[in-house]
Design a protein that fits this description.
Elements lengths: L6 H9 L4 H24 L4 H8 L3 H8 L7 H11 L15
Length: 99
């Protein structure tokens, strides 16, 4: 039998592949955006169906977004922000020099 690989070794090997860091960062950002929308929706006491109706979306689209399963467009983010009574702020900033 071949040598077993633990999760860290597999992850490290995959992260060395071209484009892996960018894909990982995109997935992290999608997850964080989805988490924020879910938290705001829950703070309003809304269901996904209620948010979907207010944002002109379907409930499955809201569910995928909240799970971090999609990379949203700016118009989708604007609709969600408007429905939640929030302001959409998009900015570019220089990288943190401490990182």
């Amino acid at each position: 039998m071949g040598q077993r690989t633990d999760w860290r070794q597999l992850r490290d090997r995959r992260m060395e592949e071209p484009g892996a860091e960018e894909a990982y960062e995109a997935a992290r950002l999608a997850f964080e955006l989805g988490k924020t929308v879910r938290e705001m929706r829950e703070a309003n006491g809304w269901t996904q169906t209620q948010l979907a109706a207010a944002a002109g979306m379907t409930q499955p689209a809201v569910a995928r977004f909240e799970a971090g399963g999609t990379t949203p467009t700016i118009p989708v983010l604007e609709r969600l922000a408007h429905a939640l009574g929030a302001e959409l702020v998009v900015r570019l900033a220089p990288p943190d020099s401490a990182a």
